[in-house]
User: Fold these one by one.
Assistant:
Number 1:
Amino acid sequence: MAALINVPPRAKRGDIIEIKTLMSHIMETGYRHTADGAVVPRDIITSFSCRYNGTEIFRADLFPAIAANPFISFFTVADASGTFEFEWIGDRGFSATAKAAITVE
Amino acid sequence: MRRPRIILATLLLTAIPVYAADIPQGERRSGTSFMAPQTKAMQDDDTANPGMLWTLEGEELWNKKYGTSDKACADCHGDARTSMKGIAARYPAFDRELGQPVDLEQRINLERARHQQASPLAYESHELLALTAFVAQQSRGMPITAGSDDELAPFIARGRELFMQRQGQLNLSCANCHDDNWDKHLAGSAITQAHPTGYPLYRLEWQTLGSLQRRLRGCIFGVRAQPYAFGAPELVDLELYLMTRAAGMAMEAPAVRP
């Protein structure tokens, strides 16, 4: 699964930075039916988290009303150089990770 | 007790000429200019535009070996960033072997059959859309040049005829909306001028990327006519006419539309 991550490559210490993530996922609600009446089983991302140098800084639970290919953006304070680790977990054993590095001056 | 019934019969007689006036060159506008600022922002930011997910996968597929030839697109075409520059802007293009125009999706499948000995990818499949989006992305910002081949003239003429042809239970032609009433709305949605500058594009309504043929079929269904099948020559002629109609406008693929 493809993911697009936007973390500024460098920032000044103490800067407030925006992190943007876009994850490829169909987000099937589980409320739809096929033409012959069978329920299309739910297939969504249920949880997203971001860790900054090992410490969790952001977490979100996702629900069926969220559109396909969820775009999640949030802010944090750049306090040290290192990596952001992103993790998406969902139905049917869905799991995806991504990483992005930042240099703090 | 019976409720009084009010019957309102409104008869609208609108005189629409059989051959609608073309949009003057100076007044042509991309679908982008009809969008809300939020949707525009989504299209302009490559990390918020969901279409970019397909181009990412398309790049992987470009380098993936396919078929019995065990060749990747990149083995013949090299770096798409240089070799595919401007290609999408001149499609649909004339194929000499078939003697008819083919669109970008059909070209990809023809190349697979002729040079990779691989099976064709289904229309609107994730793989075909990803490859098309990746190739189309290389023409971003370039002017549309489709239809400059002389052999395309009869097909463009047929596409134009289809565009002007009233059809379906609503008895509407494409031109009735997109030439004559593009400055108005259908319910809450802008009608737009139908310039296919951004295909394949991510439609929020679809929640996925889709081709111009999907869009055309949607419109034909909307006027309650029987849509042509994917890959039908009529759809390719329509695509071709629309691209020549938008000649010179900038490519925006993968665009975002509401």
Number 2:
Amino acid sequence: MCGAGALAIVALGLVVHVPVQPPGIPLEYRVKAVYLFNFVKYVEWPSRNATGPLMICVAEHNPFGDALSEAVRGELVNNRVVETRIITNPDQACHVMFVPRTVGSAPFLAASRGAPTLTVGETPGFIKQGGLVNFILEEGKVRFVIDSKAAEHADLRISSHLLRLARPPEAKRQS
Amino acid sequence: MTPFRDLPIRRKLLLTTLASTGAALLLASGGFLMWDMYQFRQLIQSDVEAQAVIVAENSGAPLEFQDDRVGSEILRLLHVRPQIQAACTYSRDGAPFASYLKGADACPSTVPGRTTFGWRALEFVSPIHANGRPVGTLYIRRDLADLYARFWVGGGILLGLLLLAIGAAHLTGTRMQRFIAEPLLDLAETARAISTSRNYSLRAVPRSNDEIGVVVHSFNEMLDRIAEALEREREVNRLKDEFLATLSHELRTPLTAVLGWTRMLRTGRLDAAMGAQALETIERNARSQAMLIDDLLDMSGIVSGKPRLHVHEADLAAIVDAAIDVIRPAATAKRLQLDVRMERPAVTHADSGRLQQVVWNLLSNAVKFTPTGGHVWIRLARANGYRLAIRDSGPGIDPTFLPYVFEPFRQADGSTTREHGGLGLGLAIAKQLVELHGGTVTAHSAGRGHGATFEVHLPSVVAPTPADLPLEHPAAALPSTPLDNTLLRGLHVLVVDDEADARTLLETALREYGARVTTASGVADALGKLEQELPDVVLSDIGMPNEHGYTLIQELRRRPRTKGGAIPAVAVTAYASVKDGLAAEAAGFQAHIAKPFEPADVASLVALLGHPTESGR
């Protein structure tokens, strides 16, 4: 089974499902918004960044509408406030940086290489380009792939619980 | 079914052992099983809890990321516990999320409320947390089949052990109960054997020194006593048989002479000398028989109650003299030397007649048993009272017989071919009489061929016994007089007796003494005769058919003096004991005479009663 075929089916499914959803943000992004917040709970950042709010950044274009800010509102993780921000340029202060498929990921990935930022993307090959987490669709459900080695290099400690939920990397899946 | 208390002792002991062993083991093993079940139940619960903690821990993330596949994978880890039939996770809003089913059909459609330990399964419910926040619920259903399996296996093992233990208890109980049951069974068996065979020489074997041993000993002792008593009874019966044989022989011997010579007299072919000898023989034998009967009656009086003593001051030396006078002819006939040495006077209080009987008995024994030409020594001396010793040079007494010499019906030679006659009562009577006087009589012998010594010891003063009566035996007190055919002249005597012979004998005797005699054959007849003419004296038999002599005297004594109420009356009876005499006197007779009587005695008594002034009393 090739990834493109699967995606086509999923896209078809989404197309079918979207009109059923209430107007506004599609389900896929409302799920991804919650997942982005959940990632914060399963990742430990280096201690020099241990104070201040936990920052979830969205590169350039926000596909979530209000869903992301709703998901993090009033939440505390390890006694830290979680905030969201739309960035146009790479920012070292981001703990999580989501790059939507409509945005070119290369400049953002390059900027955060080696930095303790959990980079999350949603385009195939995002991991190959140096991203840490990539959303995929599996039987219409949002799943993700994690490059745990790269995360280690980025000095991020990802919980085994999260790693267990991660799907194998695309290279292996496609081989 | 036999009730427990009727079971044999063996069974009872065994059942007791088994019941107590069984009860103890059942309780112990039951308790152990319950404890083990409790422990195992705790173990199951804590194990499920531990599994639940791990699963809940890992189910948090899948729930947060809504990854039911991983959620189910995690639940599938529980396959290491095959007893877990179902594990289900529910999201926070209560919707079923993931499940692991093995043997169960489906997860509960709604979230179960709380953990329950049921009969069939443990249903464990635990919240699932992620990063400190509840994200769902975990439900685990664990089958308890292994608990029951363990129960049955454990119970089976314990039951097996129980049976083994009871078997062992049965074995040891069977062996140990012998110590209790066997002596008892032995005892019971012996008792049964004795009661069926009546063999009292059987004995139970004592095996132990415990209570059963004591019972066995007591049982054997009782048997000893019973055997002794039976032996005594047998001996007494033997003696009685022997005595009856002797009695028959002794009574028949004089009777043979009497009847034989009487028949010869009736032929009328005897000459005068022969006739006189015949009469003398008849009289001697009749007297001998009367004496035998006296002895018998004395003995029966002694056996049935104490004979009465008529105690007065008496000289023992005179009593012995009188007894020697009686036996002297016999001693002279056997050319025996009588060696007499007595302190005189030897005054004491005694019934001289009875004591004379004693001395005469001892002397006649000495004379009887001493061979011709032998010696008899007689000594009377003071010795804390008086001691009379009579020793002879006869054959002596066998040491084995010595202890029985004073027992009634005992004779050293009880056979029918014995050399010496007699009933064997003499010494028994003598002993009783001496003891009535407060004295003792003993026999000594150095053995066969060394002669025998009889010693009588009497206290110097004999206290009168309470039974003493002031009234003397009238017949015994009367002097014997030569036949005087005028003694009863002018007296009218009424003789009452149902036996014609006795009536005629009395009538003849009284007529010989000059009396006028009327006879009556019974009480009614006598009362009729009394209506016609009042006699001077009434002689009446006591034992008569229909109405006895007591009725007559009572009837007579009720009458007024003019109707004969005061006529002197004499009982003439074959009931010859002292008691009978007293009864007669109490009934209203003035005196009584025992049959057979001496005609002279009867005449004297009638004279005394009929002519009170002439008798000179």
